[in-house]
Write a structure and sequence with these properties.
The chain is mostly helical. It is built from seven helices and two strands. The protein has a two-stranded antiparallel ribbon with strand order 1-2.
Length: about 350
């Protein structure tokens, strides 16, 4: 296309705006198409040829598929109308040149067609000659082939007859073999079926036996469990009874032991009391005997002094029994009786405390 047959960006967009605003408003689809088409125009360098515009319109249509085909055609027609008004003379010249170019192409095509027809005629003549030669060759080859085929046919028929006889023999043998194999298979299948039935019967009997054994085992286990629980209960009751009896026995033994200990303690206390009493009485008797012996000695001394003449009676040495009277403490200072009594009483008190604690 000639460089004169072009529009600039402003002319293209003006033609599209005039079409979209002819009704006074622009739809959302038209606005989207305008924006997409303008982006494609902005990406193009130089003026816009008709082919360029058609290509960019198609690209915008792909991005805005909601635009209808009628609107798309009308917008393209509006741009084409602007294109024609701007480039009318150039278009007419281009049409003339296209017509001349078309006439030249048709003349060349006619010459080419005649040339091809002549070449085709010569080719067909040559093919016809070659075909005749080929047919003759093929006829001779066919005759030779037919003769060889006849010989081959007879040979093959003989071979086929022998093959069929062999096949028949082999087939009969194979049928016999298959029959025997089938009989053997059926026999084995029957044996296998009987064996399987027997195994199934035995398996069921075994399962039934095992089930009964399991039931018997569970029954016995349950009985054993109940028996063991009963024995355990009885054993625990017996143990409890024995424990209570043992506790009672120990309690009675302990009471008996305490009673005996108390009796022993009382016996010992009584014996100790009697012993102390006897010691006290013996000590008192001893003291009384000593006092009586001292009194007798003093009496004898005084009796002897009364028989002495003159002043001899005045010179009397002090006797051990004379002098100040002995206090009870001094008179019994050497006696261990009070200490023994105190020790016995302390031991009795300690023994009673020990028995109380036990």
């Amino acid at each position: 296309m000639s460089e004169d047959l072009s529009l600039n960006l402003t002319e293209v967009l003006t033609a599209l705006q005039d079409f979209m605003t002819k009704d006074g408003s622009i739809s959302a689809e038209q606005r989207s198409f305008y924006q997409a088409f303008r982006q494609h125009l902005n990406g193009h360098d130089g003026d816009f040829l008709l082919d360029d515009i058609e290509h960019l319109l198609g690209a915008a249509k792909e991005e805005v598929p909601d635009i209808s085909a009628e609107e798309f055609t009308a917008m393209g027609e509006a741009i084409l109308t602007r294109y024609r008004s701007v480039n009318e003379d150039a278009i007419n010249e281009r049409i003339r040149k296209l017509a001349e170019e078309e006439a030249r192409k048709r003349a060349l095509a006619e010459e080419e067609r005649k040339k091809r027809e002549e070449e085709e005629r010569l080719r067909l003549e040559e093919e016809e000659r070659l075909r005749a030669e080929e047919e003759e060759r093929l006829r001779l080859e066919e005759e030779e082939r037919l003769r060889a085929e006849e010989e081959e046919r007879l040979r093959l028929e003989e071979e086929e007859r022998l093959r069929r006889e062999e096949e028949e023999r082999l087939r009969a043998e194979e049928e016999e073999r298959l029959r025997l194999e089938e009989e053997e298979r059926l026999r084995r299948e029957e044996e296998e079926r009987l064996r399987a039935e027997e195994e199934e019967h035995l398996r069921r009997e075994e399962e039934e036996r095992l089930r009964q054994e399991e039931e018997e085992r569970l029954r016995r286990e349950e009985e054993e469990r109940l028996r063991a629980e009963e024995e355990q209960r009885r054993r625990l009751e017996e143990e409890e009874r024995l424990r209570q009896e043992e506790e009672e026995r120990l309690r009675l033994e302990e009471e008996e032991r305490l009673r005996r200990e108390e009796e022993e303690r009382l016996r010992l206390e009584e014996e100790e009391r009697r012993r102390l009493e006897e010691e006290r009485l013996a000590e008192e008797a001893r003291l009384q005997a000593e006092l009586e012996a001292q009194a007798a000695e003093k009496q004898a001394y005084w009796d002897q002094q009364g028989s002495l003449p003159g002043d001899e009676a005045k010179i009397v040495p002090d006797l051990p029994g004379e002098g100040p009277a002995l206090t009870p403490t001094e008179g019994t200072n050497a006696s261990p009786l009070p200490k023994i009594v105190a020790a016995v009483i302390g031991l009795s008190v300690l023994g009673g405390l020990a028995m109380f604690m036990l």
